[in-house]
Design goal:
The complex is a heterodimer of chains A (313) and B (296). Chain A is mainly alpha-helical and 313 residues long. Chain A has helices at 2-14, 27-46, 48-52, 61-86, 92-100, 118-135, 144-172, 176-195, 207-212, 220-238, 263-273, 277-290, 292-312; strands at residues 248-250, 255-257. In chain A, strand 1 and strand 2 (255-257) form a beta hairpin. Chain B is mostly helical and 296 residues long. Chain B is globular. The chains are: A mainly alpha (313), B mainly alpha (296).
Chain lengths: 313, 296
């Protein structure tokens, strides 16, 4: 019986059809998806902090509105993704507990600090750009609710990327101090953005099985190459450079050659020792714990309202 | 959407690609922007600043909740309310600058005025949390009072002799009614919910009430602008009625007026603020002011 179900599952995945919540699926597939989607949801929620850092100080009212709307979108993305994990039997509250207890991870990029307003533009352009490279293929991922959430998220991310790039374009047309601020932000975010694709393929433990299950569609190195290739002309148009002396067009490969990020730094940040890891988790923990009485009150009120309805009926 | 090349999929898309299309029109398109001849321009500028600053400063306070709310849904809702208020502020400050005629735009007015030139009521500026200044209950009580008062004010302002103020009010009223509804629902949940939430709501009402009386005090500018401005002293019974209904459902008692002395007869509308205001303005303005001549 399980063999039949397993065969049907394999066939559905291999024929590029979608697995839906009621379908049978291997436990490992379910666990991998919950882990991956939760990690993505946590990234959206933790990602609200580095950008939220500048809302109160945004230098024009238009930029303040754009930034606030963007951070609000990230909360929305987190919400859809937690909802997608719930179709697999997970619970949002439990996943949040895992996040604040350090048992589940989020994208390491958010463990870097946002030091100037140019970081708001560079995060949009490079960080959201790298996220899009990672996420667009997930619109075809084998699990239906995840794939559909990703379509909407990618549309909004692409809007954020354009807004970030537009901010940088505007700043580059401003004063020298602003141009310097943009270059400084690019210098700080370039390497971490390359790390967003994960370790080199030969060191990536999850790639092979996830590719076979069509949860993952491209390898880390393929996506990293695509990102570098698409970022180079954008940097040239903007008038900034990337801090990599090895970066140049290779006509034989039809791609850019580029240097390797500092993988030691990457593993340090992934391991919890980045510049902002403890700050980010503490912030999330505080919001969650400070809000506990509110959630309890809402639940108590709803229960009272239900009881009085039942009493009437 | 092409999935083969991420970047191609993002550019040159038809409008249908975007959730809300791309053809946004200006919110007050088609509204007559001439200043009516019977209106004193200086007073109208001051009045637009009063209303614009109310919205701007409360928006700044509410935005501080983003990433700190009790639930993700509430991060979204409070950010949404802050965005609505920011949108109102931009229209009102733009109107102030336009009537003044000295080339000041919304940003010059938001970022280059000193604390004493801001005209918002104290209720908008006090720190109600997140953080040591308050908590979610205080934020909700402040929002409930503010939005109930603004709904009453904007519903009358729709008939203003200034066509721009009338249009801003018509647009803003729908938003404010939603803010009031959101705050009222939370007030009922928290007032009724648990012992702790009830206790916090009682403390929140105590914290906020000394700032309520100012809302109904007519400033000389408002008194002179009959037909353009709304007389705040007319709003009290309507606001009290709304608050009574919410407080009753929440199991709370609405305090009577707590008249708080002004400073030599002056308060927010005159540019005399609470101690919290200087910090708020400093944080909001510091980047804009530290790079003169920058473009954003």
């Amino acid at each position: 019986m399980v063999d039949d179900l397993a065969a049907r599952f394999e066939h559905t995945v291999a024929s590029e059809a979608r697995i839906e919540p009621r379908d049978w699926m291997p436990d490992g597939y379910r666990r991998t998806l919950i882990r991956q989607i939760a990690q993505h949801a946590h990234s959206e929620i933790i990602g609200m902090q580095p950008e939220g850092n500048w809302i109160s100080r945004a230098p024009s009212l238009r930029r303040k509105a754009i930034l606030l709307a963007k951070v609000q979108d990230e909360a929305g993305h987190g919400l859809y993704l937690y909802a997608a994990t719930e179709t697999l039997g997970a619970d949002r509250g439990e996943l949040t507990e895992k996040l604040i207890d350090g048992k589940q991870k989020y994208s390491s990029i958010f463990n870097y600090p946002t030091l100037t307003f140019a970081d708001m533009g560079v995060i949009g352009w490079l960080v959201d750009g790298a996220a899009i490279c990672n996420q667009v293929p997930l619109c075809r991922t084998s699990y239906g609710p995840y794939a559909r959430a990703m379509i909407r998220i990618c549309k909004e991310e692409s809007f954020h990327q354009r807004q970030g790039y537009e901010l940088l374009m505007t700043m580059m047309r401003g004063t020298q101090a602003q141009r310097d601020m943009v270059q400084d932000a690019v210098d700080r975010w370039w390497w971490p953005s390359l790390m967003m694709f994960g370790p080199p393929d030969e060191e990536s433990s999850n790639t092979e099985q996830s590719m076979a299950w069509r949860i993952k569609r491209n390898t880390n190195d393929e996506l990293r190459q695509k990102y570098v290739d698409m970022s180079m002309p954008q940097a040239a148009k903007l008038g900034v450079t990337f801090p990599d002396p090895e970066l140049k067009w290779n006509p034989e490969r039809g791609h850019h050659d580029f240097g390797q990020p500092d993988w030691e730094e990457f593993w340090q940040v992934v391991g919890g020792h980045g510049p902002c890891n403890s700050q980010r988790v503490a912030h999330r923990r505080k919001a969650h714990e400070d809000g506990a009485w509110v959630r309890e009150a809402a639940a108590a009120h709803a229960a009272k309202a239900r009881r009085s309805q039942e009493g009437v009926a | 959407m092409s999935f083969d090349n991420a970047y191609e999929a993002l550019i040159d898309q038809e409008d249908a690609h975007w959730a809300f299309g791309t053809g946004f029109s200006a919110p007050l398109e088609g509204v007559d922007r001439e200043v009516p001849t019977s209106v004193d321009a200086k007073d109208l500028v001051a009045y637009c600043l009063m209303l614009g600053d109310d919205s701007l400063i409360l928006s700044q306070r509410l935005a501080a909740w983003c990433s700190r709310a009790p639930e993700l849904e509430e991060d979204i809702a409070l950010a949404n309310i802050a965005l609505d208020l920011l949108g109102q502020a931009r229209l009102l400050l733009t109107r102030a600058g336009e009537v003044e005629g000295e080339g000041r735009d919304e940003d010059a007015l938001a970022y280059l005025r000193d604390e004493r030139e801001f005209r918002n009521v104290h209720l908008a500026e006090i720190d109600c949390g997140p953080g040591p200044g308050g908590d979610f209950a205080t934020t909700i009580v402040r929002l409930l009072v503010f939005s109930s008062w603004k709904v009453a004010q904007f519903s009358r302002l729709r008939g203003s002799a200034d066509p721009v103020l009338a249009a801003v009010a018509a647009k803003g009223l729908k938003e404010l009614a939603y803010h009031r509804d959101h705050a009222a629902q939370w007030a009922v949940r928290l007032g009724d919910g648990t012992e702790e939430s009830h206790r916090r709501m009682v403390a929140a009402v105590d914290r906020v009430w000394p700032f309520v009386d100012e809302l109904f005090h007519a400033n000389a500018v408002e008194s002179r602008l009959a037909g353009v401005a709304v007389d705040p002293s007319e709003l009290r019974s309507e606001v009290d009625g709304v608050l009574d209904a919410v407080f009753e459902a929440a199991g709370l008692t609405r305090p009577g007026p707590i008249p708080t002395a002004f400073v030599a007869g002056q308060a927010g509308r005159d540019g005399v603020h609470t101690e919290a205001m200087g910090f708020l303005v400093a944080e909001m303005q510091h980047l804009h002011r530290s790079l003169p001549g920058a473009v954003w």
